[in-house]
Design goal:
This protein is mainly β. Helix content is about 15%, strand content about 40%. The chain has five helices and 28 strands. β1 and β2 form a beta hairpin.
Length: about 400
């Protein structure tokens, strides 16, 4: 009915679409409100009138109420008065219609279909977002009055020059429909314009954590462990505390978008690195593009009558994090000389690489293939390995 349509149009005018970024910004909650609830709808009904009556100076055979006042139905029930008595009376009838107001409270159904768009306001590939709350539909659309979406962030290297990577531009456009009784009203296309959404990239620092013992252990065989934290010269990292804060931020951002399995793959690497560093009794932090001689770096300073412990020929396990594809060259000789062994560690697609035991000519790595043996170790031992023989390294 026309009245219902007008009321729904009025309800549409009160609605707004909003988005709220959650956490570090890669997750967005979108909603349309306020929820309309019930509305009062007035309906004009047509009432029918039909009155008939009879008045006469006559006698009736009984005093019962009559269901019909049609004259023919009364003939057998009237006592006729002999002529020439004058019979005076009135026959009457009233028929017609009258308008009646019928006011009812009815629920209003609110339906919202969200289009998820890229920076050019074209449908965003479904691999670039995940529906955390709501119902996925075809053509990059999501159904639901209140929805929560996770957008795939870019994973980029965090550097001094770009400590805060530029965000991606996305858009959400709602299509709003209201219905009550048998009437449906859809908002015109320009009533709810595209809502811009900025999706921050996740900056991951490039960092090697090289441990004295296998499996990143803090002690082994009665010897204290240590960890070398090695970052390139353009790294924004300045200290161990800064590293821990940065990794916590990365962990929070990645956890929010763990619906993207490849991105969430960095979480085990961060967890192993953080727990290993926290448990280690000693650490040294080096920010440089290369270390030509690990023997120049003392990690455990002892009394004057005891030997100090330097980094050379002590490393047994490593964790590398960073943007996928970043590489580190590792050598068994000083001065980046590959005469007695050379391997290359590459950050995998999950943004980390782990070698839990370097005591082999071809150490296993995770993801598989992250460690490439460029030249097998050949130093003078019966069973030469990379473990406890690393002397220099360089970022590529």
């Amino acid at each position: 009915m026309a009245e219902t349509s007008a009321i729904l149009q009025g309800v549409l005018a009160t609605l707004n679409a909003t988005t709220v970024a959650q956490g570090t910004g890669q997750v967005v909650a979108a909603s349309v409100g306020p929820k309309p609830g019930n509305v009062d709808i007035a309906e004009i009904l047509t009432g029918t009138l039909d009155f008939t009556w009879l008045t006469k100076n006559v006698s009736f055979k009984n005093a019962n109420l009559e269901p019909s006042l049609v004259a023919a139905d009364l003939q057998s029930k009237i006592t006729q008065i002999a002529s020439p008595v004058t019979v005076a009376g009135l026959l009457g009838q009233l028929k017609g219609t009258v308008p009646l107001l019928n006011q009812v409270s009815v629920p209003v159904a609110l339906k919202v279909e969200w289009s998820v768009l890229d920076e050019n306001k074209k449908p965003l590939a479904t691999s670039e977002f995940a529906v955390l709350s709501g119902q996925s539909a075809a053509d990059s659309k999501v159904n639901g009055v209140d929805v929560v979406l996770a957008f795939r962030p870019a994973i980029v290297e965090m550097t001094k020059e770009a400590p805060v990577p530029a965000p991606k531009q996305r858009f959400l456009k709602p299509k709003v429909t209201l219905s009550a009784l048998d009437t449906t009203v859809t908002a015109p296309d320009d009533r709810f314009p595209e809502i811009p959404v900025l999706v921050p990239a996740i900056g991951v620092p490039r960092l090697l954590a090289a441990f004295r013992h296998v499996d990143f252990q803090p002690t082994s065989g009665g010897e204290d462990g240590f960890v070398l934290l090695f970052a390139p010269a353009n790294s924004p990292l300045q200290s161990l505390d800064h590293l821990k804060t940065t990794l916590a931020t990365v962990q929070e951002a990645v956890t929010a978008v763990k619906a993207f399995g490849d991105i969430a793959g960095i979480l085990p690497g961060i967890s192993s690195l953080t727990s290993g560093v926290t448990a280690s009794p000693y650490f040294v932090f080096v920010v440089a593009d290369e270390i030509q001689n690990l023997n120049d770096i003392t990690v455990i300073q002892r009394s004057w009558y005891e030997n100090d412990t330097e980094l050379e020929d002590e490393i047994s396990s490593m964790i590398l994090i960073g943007a996928a594809g970043k590489q580190l060259d590792v050598y068994c000789e000083t001065e980046l000389d590959d005469e007695n062994g050379h391997c290359k560690l590459t950050v995998g697609p999950n943004n980390f690489a782990v070698v839990s035991n370097l005591h082999s000519k071809h150490p296993d790595s995770h993801p598989a293939g992250s460690l490439e043996v460029v030249k097998e170790p050949t130093h003078a031992t019966e069973d030469p390995t990379f473990g406890d023989w690393i002397s220099s390294m360089k970022w590529l």
